[in-house]
Amino acid sequence: MVVHQLIPCLSPGDATGNAAIQFQGLLRQLGHASELYAGEIHPSFRALAAPARALRPAEDDWVLYHHGIASPLAGRLVHLRCRRGVVFHNISPASFYRGTGLEHALLGGRAQLAALAGHVDLSIGVSAFNAAELRAAGHANVHVVPLFVEPERFAPGRADPRLRAELEGPGLSVLTVSRVVPHKRMEDLLALHAELLRLEPSARLLVAGGMDDGSRYVKGLRQQAAALRNVRFLGKVSHGGLVAAYRSSRVFVSMSEHEGFGVPLVEAMAAGLPVAAYAAAAVPETLGGAGVAFTAKHFAALAELVRELHADPVLRASVLGGQQARLRQLSAEAVRPALASGLAAGEAHVQARAQRASPRRPPPRPARKRPRVGVLVQRYGDVAGGAEAHARMVVERLSAHWDITVLTGCAEDHLTWEDRFPPGRSRVGSAEVLRFEGAHARDMRRFNAFSRTLFGAPQDLAHEQAWIAAQGPVLPGLYRHLAAEGRRYDGFVAFTYLYAPTAWGVPMVADRCLVVPTAHDEPAFQFDAFGDVFRRPRCLLVNTPEEKALISARFPGHARARVVGVGVDAAPGEAARFRAKHGLRRPYLLYVGRLEAGKNVPWLLSLHARLRRAYHDAPELVLAGSGELRPSGDGVRCLGRIDEQDKWDALAGALAVVVPSQHESLSLLALEGMSQGAPLLANAASAVLAGQARRSGAGHLFSDAESFALAVQRVGQERDVLSRRGLAFAARHGWDKVVAAYREELAKIREGGR
Amino acid sequence: MKLLGREVTAQKVLERIEDRLRARGLLPADAGLGEGSAGALGVEPRVDPLSYNVHALEEHADPTVGLPLETHRGGAGQLVLVAKWAFRKTGQVFINEALSRQRLFNGHVRDAYAQLSAEVLQLRAEVARLKAEKEAAQAAPPKATPAKAGPAAGATSGKRAAARPARKKPSRT
After folding, report:
1. Complex confidence, ipTM
2. pLDDT score of B147
3. What are the Cα distances from residue B39, in Å, to A68, A283, A302, B35?
4. Minimal CA–CA distance to A290: which of A329, A325, A315?
């Protein structure tokens, strides 16, 4: 099924947009293709959603429109020829905003809600309270799908350390997280704070959330706060800042008079903060018996209550324990069935309306002898790239046993993702390839700038998903194909966790999917948004024990992992032929791969230059491959891309193969070098390369100019011994074992075992 | 004030709080905190889209009437407000001139919408009446089928028979 979502606005911190992104993840986990369409899109989220005007659903597609205040998209929805649903996030009562510009937007939103009633097949409230308002507005077929919070995003390590240090202090500090607007009743919080100051003179009040400094309401609040002490308005904060605010406070208090759900209440629970909240609208339902809800605003009494929650260890521990139990009820795992049953009811409603029987499921197909397998990979064919080459090698070898369809994009260049190959079916080698058009190309300059703003700091789900979308390639046709045809495949193999086809495709077919993550310790690996790729598939086929350890440390509870790696089918190489062809007379170090800064090639060049300056007999450096760099220098030979035989000849003649990259899940070059008797010189900062060198005993590591010079010297002295060890190590890495492992894992999927 | 929460022995906590408030002289000795009325706002009533839109169009049909002056910015935002106020004061005559056709157009939209929505309401009522009639007809017991009229009955149905013109037998010639 295809379930698109239509949202008025997608921007950082927007609650409706965040909910749509959460729903998108759940929909993918349920096997549905789901794209976001928005009326307004913040520049940093442009890759994540398409403009609302681009939405062209098929008649059988669902469109879920997220409704809040008045939006022209409500009118657009009722004119779409498809299955229509509304997700209601509630609307603040207009009575709080009389005489302001917002009043009409609020009333208009309610009028639109009522107008939608006769035109939707499914109405979803994010709380039972919202569901009651939907019914009051005339909606039938109403379901509740609550929002949820990912507790790991509020762990102490996710706090902005600078802000946390700034906010932390002895004594009682009360926090509220919310936009500073009238119906949130911040003036009541200030009244509570005034009472608290009588009990605890050092008490502090933190208010995190956006505010319109020019509004009369905020000006009044600031005046009121100035008369007190220890009140701090933090304004809109980053995710790290938000966690810092939660983690540096003792009690969370909400005085809001109207909440359709109350996400901050749940966030506070996730951050280990006891919650006290005015029991208005959906608040008691969101708390679900956890925390403390109060029914009157007796500020002196509330001050006593807050002090008890702060200082009474028994009461505090009991409340926190209850909140943890409530958190489990508001997890993605718990919410997903509610969404599934809502959609099923919507589908039944459509069928009933159309007065036709639900479509019969096709009879189960007889088991095929040769399994049909889909291979998900970001690019395929004659393209440069380690993971892509890995995928192709696996596909070529498994084609003898499986009917493989490679599901990929049309791009050749992984920097721009510009479509170059024609979309549709074709053949590459022994495999059928089905290519899908990319939604957009990538501007590397903008992408790198965006990455710099995100890396190294904790992020919320929306920003992480926006990064995955910007990383690309975004292939909407692929997800449609998986939703419509996924059941026709016996299994899937997905390559490289880092790209959108895997990150978004794997959750859709996770129960039949093997993932080859090729994980590195890189900044994006810290994103929780990749959790589904590591936790949901049937098995992770990793390259090295180091990669497995890395995944275990980052994603505890990941799917079963098996070290499989790749094999080496070495062709005999002739050193003399290579030397003669390229006019090489002196010993040389060899690098074969992408000539990119990301592979640390500039660092290798600088180390080699220093070596040449220090030693008159230093070996030359031969580089083969393509990329953004054009290496040159004393004793440096750049050959560009070379053919396969040339590569084997080059490896056979090399003094050593040098791998400067830090981010490797496996160095195929190292293995190929060993198969030709070439020792390994590798970057010591890479645990994977260090492991390969240690396990083979066929190489040395370097971390700076001195250790590089020493390693080159030792390779020269010990080349024969290292060479013998390398040959023996490579002989243990044959393709037969790799192919057997893939077949075994797919057989388990077909048998239904884990 | 009631306290709700599974992990809280509400009565005990409230008693402790009340004792402390009494000790501080904030609660009379014989009084409690009461119950409170959270959630008094409850579910918002339905806003009828047709009548809401008619009223909204009426209210906003005249574009020469400014909206309330507001700003979300502090500091410079106040200067902007003053500038806007001054612009309205000094330029209203030009605003009226520039938007005169828009005002006419909006008036037509308002009137057309009012007319159309009135007709929609009328049609809805008509559809509801017809549906109710249909349902009533379906719910009513079926009328007994009259017995087929025999030759003797012909005499009693003279009125009906007289109303129909006698059919001529077609001539075979």
Report:
1. 0.73
2. 53
3. 20, 9, 17, 12
4. A325
